[in-house]
Structure to design on (371 residues):
């Protein structure tokens, strides 16, 4: 058992005086390439990270205890804008899907940094859903659990996110990224062995807090939908470069990002399959430029990191997740990680930006039942 899972068990025993019946955990994610494409029916390429949410669960009447918030909430409840919305959303979505849940109690703990764009919310949804599925013997397919978690997020928590985060949390495998076709929902493991090429996946959390509900995320979705309508298409996934001449203004810019980004994901997967990390890196720079100039979701901090990554010899760098703050990633030689971190810390301090938080992740396992 991982340490985080063991802690969920220890707290369960201490609070409820017995052993949990089920222990499950689920990871956060970084997206390597393919941003804002998921809700346009396009392609994404996330991988799971070594940060997880663990849920220990059993039959009982003692409610849901968040170790991180030191707070107990009932098994179900209305939306409140607080942590319990995620497990409550999952319970709601399972019941909407026809499941009849018994009285259960749980302890929940996580080490995915919240509000950083590393999908702490998908991790808590996925861990809760998988634990409940196991406790109740529901045998719901992973792909359907992901859809159920997305429904919890869209309809209960009321954030209009796409399918990427929940899919990544439930379906990623250790050592691989996951190519998802967000229209057909088919997915494919893409081996990602940066270490044997002497490379690291460095993550810079700019610590500019972002909350999807409070940002332009829903606005971007609306613009994309309008652009597709103008083109007479179901989704921007179907748009081509030629179609762009029929658009203007923000619809043109957003659509151009989606069309080119989808192409970059497919080119990126081809590059990874031949271990061509240099080619993959080029696509990352281009993705960042497109997110900055066309989709307009970058921030000065994310741009400054990407600029420093270029100066520091990274193969590629880009913002990851929704943007509007949060994290950026770089693929860089292991020996250059420390000097890039030093350079960025220095640059950020001169510009009076917050000191970033740093992580080096390797592609981790998706959600697992460990007991
Ligand atoms: C957030 C959403 C995802 C996806 C990304 C942008 O992480 O939850 O569904 O849209 O933004 O790629």
């Amino acid at each position: 058992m991982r340490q985080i899972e063991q802690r969920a068990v220890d707290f369960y025993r201490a609070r409820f005086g017995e052993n949990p019946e089920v222990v499950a955990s689920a990871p956060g994610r970084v997206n390597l390439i393919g941003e804002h494409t998921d809700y346009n029916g396009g392609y994404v390429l996330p991988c799971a990270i070594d940060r997880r949410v663990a849920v220990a669960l059993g039959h009982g009447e003692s409610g849901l205890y968040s170790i991180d918030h030191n707070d107990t909430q009932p098994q179900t409840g209305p939306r409140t804008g607080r942590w319990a919305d995620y497990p409550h959303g999952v319970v709601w979505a399972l019941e909407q899907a026809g499941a009849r849940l018994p009285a259960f109690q749980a302890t929940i703990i996580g080490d995915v940094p919240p509000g950083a764009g590393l999908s702490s919310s998908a991790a808590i949804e996925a861990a809760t859903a998988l634990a409940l599925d196991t406790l109740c013997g529901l045998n719901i397919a992973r792909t359907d659990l992901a859809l159920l978690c997305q429904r919890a997020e869209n309809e209960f928590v009321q954030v209009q996110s796409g399918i990427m985060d929940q899919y990544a949390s439930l379906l990623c495998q250790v050592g691989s990224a996951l190519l998802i076709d967000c229209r057909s929902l088919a997915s494919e493991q893409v081996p990602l062995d940066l270490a044997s090429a002497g490379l690291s996946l460095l993550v810079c959390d700019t610590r500019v807090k972002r909350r999807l509900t409070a940002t332009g995320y829903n606005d971007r979705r609306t613009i994309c939908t309008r652009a597709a309508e103008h083109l007479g298409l179901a989704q921007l996934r179907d748009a081509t470069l030629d179609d762009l001449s029929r658009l203007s203004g923000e619809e043109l810019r957003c659509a151009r990002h989606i069309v080119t980004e989808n192409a970059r994901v497919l080119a990126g997967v081809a590059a990874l399959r031949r271990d061509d990390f240099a080619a993959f890196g080029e696509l990352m720079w281009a993705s960042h430029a497109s997110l900055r100039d066309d989709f307009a979701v970058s921030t000065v901090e994310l741009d400054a990191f990407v600029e420093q990554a270029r100066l520091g010899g990274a193969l590629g760098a880009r913002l990851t997740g929704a943007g509007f703050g949060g994290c950026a990633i770089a693929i860089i030689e292991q020996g250059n990680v420390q000097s890039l971190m030093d350079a960025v810390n220095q640059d950020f301090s001169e510009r009076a930006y917050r000191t970033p938080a740093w992580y080096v992740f390797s592609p981790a396992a998706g959600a697992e039942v460990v007991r």
Q: What stands out?
A: Residues 3-191+365-369 form a domain with the Ribosomal Protein S5; domain 2 fold (CATH 3.30.230.10). The two ends are 9 Å apart (CA to CA). The mean pLDDT is 97.
